[in-house]
Design brief:
single chain, 573 residues, alpha+beta, five-stranded antiparallel beta sheet, globular, binds adenosine-5'-diphosphate
């Protein structure tokens, strides 16, 4: 008995020592989205020790979902295509697009550093060689990979590889809950909750807040904008505004919190966003009566309002084979089963259940408008492209909360500011967690530009600030201890199991490593592509993040989610 007490005491002491051991780095980055990863790479390249805390069990945040591209002015790729553009024109477009609410200094910094940031990303292995026209942009400046794939899916792995090659650790499942400060109000570290629910503290000389926006937090966005109560979201589940709350708690000023962008063209079941470059290539929108109702190249807010004013509150995005062939992103959407097609405009109208003659006449009059470069009906002057190559295609679209323009106030050094304009020492922020760059409306392509330019700047500033105080050797929380504590929760192994889906059986492989569910792959299923995409994108990551099947089913895919839950439960038990 005595022996056991001694052993227990010894164990308690070891555990206490482990908990008390200093977790430290020069720079702690909170959030492994685009801004956080750019900051981490830059800070490491500038000589700082870095650790990234990520509350989800995967990186990428909203960044991985971004579609269109990265705006930049005066790039080598624009020059190669003979496109004349300049930071001045980009500034003007951004200010006008943002209803002149943006902070002009932040906008200038972004535009003037955009081309250099494209070069920086190219150096990291990112292909941004294709340039497209975006809505609200005077010149074509939306950069993306050749073939036009959705940018987030290309950029995120490139950034992750760069973290990996630099040996930068991302602590997954680690949710920052508090910014620690000294008596002067300067930030001294971060407190977080790890995978096991245990509180862990980090000491550092600089913190980069890169937690993204609050588009997935209905309570928070409806508090600032009651008219958006009940809106769906295109955001990933981690976009809950934590960084804004943590910064506000230590005195940060917030700006433009009621400026929330609803994306006009979101497919309602999968929440897939249809980039405006589809319209930039000539696509039009019609309502359920088969008629156009707006200049499709106007800004997102105007288009969202216009769609909600239509009967049924949705529209169809219409394009043809020429556009489909040109855009890999649309081909991916086709694979997902969200595209309706018809060999002729009348056949497409029939498939959609809208008036065939009205729709066919609408396509015809659009083509005439393109030919005469005179869209008398809606005065559209950009993205004029003929719709004449069958098959014709349509995707149903309606608005959802897409982007939160407001957030913590920063200066061009990414320092977080108080109401009185003073900077909170040692605290930097970049990306969607900040406000001021996009003012009253964000132009498509400006989000990736923002997170890359300011993410990189935050990394640079945070590293310089930290190193000026003397470097801290990297000491990470007991990553191993975390795994050990989790061990025994589930039994390690790779399990194959069959579950009942909505349309038939699903074969599922569940991987458990270190006691944690690390991967869930559906090898075979008969669900519709659209429903499966929603399950794949939202449900599976939520299970991995929660390490439990006790997560909400995806709206519209309840039966598929239930089938998957039961299958996984049978494995875990
Ligand atoms: P940005 O575009 O600004 O980079 P993202 O949405 O792409 O924003 O990424 C933000 C990341 O921050 C997401 O991966 C999200 O899960 C993570 N995050 C949000 N809140 C916290 C938190 N409290 N602790 C750790 N990570 C967080």
């Amino acid at each position: 008995m005595k022996k056991m007490v001694v052993l227990a005491l010894a164990l308690a002491l070891v555990l206490a020592a482990a908990t008390a051991s200093a977790n430290q780095a020069d720079v702690v980055v909170i959030g492994a989205g685009g801004a956080g990863m750019a900051a981490a790479i830059q800070a490491a390249d500038d000589g700082a020790t870095v650790v990234v805390l990520e509350k989800m069990n995967y990186a990428g945040g909203n960044t991985v979902r971004s579609e269109g591209g990265m705006n930049a002015a005066g790039t080598v790729y624009q020059a190669a295509m003979g496109i004349e553009d300049s930071p001045e024109v980009m500034i003007e477009d951004t200010m006008v697009g943002g209803k002149n609410l943006s902070d002009p200094e932040l906008v200038r910094f972004m535009a003037e550093n955009s081309a250099a940031t494209v070069d920086w990303l190219t150096g990291l292995g990112m292909d941004l060689s294709e340039v497209a026209q975006g809505a609200g942009a005077t010149n074509a400046r939306m950069h993306r990979s050749a073939g036009g794939a959705k940018i987030g899916g290309v950029l995120t792995p490139v950034l992750m590889k760069n973290l990996e090659s630099r040996g930068i650790t991302i602590l997954y499942g680690t949710c920052a809950t508090r910014l620690d400060t000294d008596e002067s109000g300067a930030v001294t570290g971060v407190t977080a909750t790890d995978k096991t629910g245990t509180e862990v503290s980090f000491t550092c000389n600089s913190v980069v807040l890169a937690t993204g926006g609050f588009g997935a937090n209905e309570e928070q966005f409806a508090a600032y904008r009651s008219d958006l109560k009940g809106f769906s979201t295109t955001n990933h589940p981690g976009a809950t505004g934590d960084g804004i709350v943590m910064a506000q708690a230590i005195g940060a000023a917030l700006v433009d919190m009621d400026q929330i962008q609803t994306n006009p063209t979101v497919e309602p079941v999968t929440h897939i966003v249809l980039s405006e470059s589809v319209r930039g290539n000539g696509a039009i929108m019609v309502n359920v009566e088969g008629r156009r109702f707006v200049n499709e190249m106007l800004t997102r807010d105007v288009l969202s309002t216009a769609i909600l004013e239509q009967p049924e509150k949705y529209a169809y995005l219409i394009f043809d084979k020429r556009i489909m062939d040109k855009m890999e992103a649309l081909q991916q959407d086709y694979e997902m089963g969200i595209v309706t097609e018809g060999e002729t405009p009348a056949a497409l109208a029939q498939a959609l259940g809208i008036p065939e003659d009205v729709f066919a006449a609408q396509v015809e009059s659009w083509n005439q408008a393109v030919a005469s470069e005179n869209d008398a009906a809606f005065e559209r002057t950009t993205g004029l492209g003929t719709l004449s190559d069958g098959p014709w295609y349509a995707i149903q679209v309606s608005p959802a909360v897409h982007y939160t323009m407001g957030g913590v106030k920063i200066n061009t050094n990414t320092q977080v500011l108080r109401e009185d304009g003073s900077a909170i020492a040692n605290l930097y922020a970049a990306g969607e967690v900040t406000g001021g760059v996009h003012g009253g409306n964000r132009l498509g392509g400006n989000a990736v530009c923002d997170i890359m330019v300011f993410g990189r700047q935050a990394g640079m500033q945070a590293a310089a600030n930290a190193l000026a105080k003397g470097s801290l050797a990297l000491e990470l929380p007991q990553a191993e201890a975390q795994v050990e504590q989790a061990q025994g929760h589930y039994t390690d192994g790779v399990y194959q199991v069959e579950g009942a889906g909505r349309n038939g059986p699903m074969q599922v492989t569940v991987t458990v490593e270190g006691g944690n569910i690390t991967d869930i792959v559906v090898d075979n299923h008969s669900e519709t592509a659209a429903i499966f995409e929603a399950v794949q994108r939202d449900f599976i990551p939520a299970i991995i993040a929660a390490q439990s099947t006790q997560v909400d089913s995806v709206a519209g895919a309840t039966m598929s989610c239930d089938g998957l839950k039961n299958a996984i439960d049978s494995v875990l038990k």
